[in-house]
Design a protein that fits this description.
72% of the residues lie in helices and 0% in strands. With 196 residues, the protein is mostly helical. Helix 1 (13-31) packs across helix 2 and helix 5 crosses helix 9.
Length: 196
Amino acid sequence: MSITLHARKRLSPVESRAAAVAAARQLLRDEGVAAVTLKAVATKIGRTHANLLHHFGSAAGLHRALAEDIAATVSASISEAIGKRRRGEASERDVVDAMFDAFHAERVGELIGWVALTRQREALEPVIDTIRTIVEDFRVSSDTRPMDRVTLGLVLMAIGDSLAGDEVAGATGLPREAVRDDAVGLIKGIVGDSSN
């Protein structure tokens, strides 16, 4: 599906930003994070570099908007899985799969790594907010279990898996799914022991 728009069509500022973020997401999925430049996104949607600067202020602003958009998608997917687990409609493995699948599909590890390495840490705020939301979704009001520790482990595992899961699994001689099994063990181990 192409995001390219006709250059003559007038878009509202909201539509223009949304088209740019959608194009950035497509570039991230198709070509990787290094391809997500103002110039590439502008070309993809038939706009100028200056137009995108007007909407985002800088490449870092575009990256933050991209991170916000991805964080919303990832958060919704994980929250849905957690809700199903609470209702008895899903297992711990379903929650782990939802998290790992969302991180992999959206290339979250690559985006986080690139943003961190280019010292645009403010662009990570939407991801940090999503992690806080995941902790709160895991925890219920009367729950004293260390859901913050569970979330820390799960998120770091999912980031690493989305970034280099195939390569690391290959190096260990284990199937890539083994990390998901370990993530389920993390949930069961820490959740079952509230003294940690």
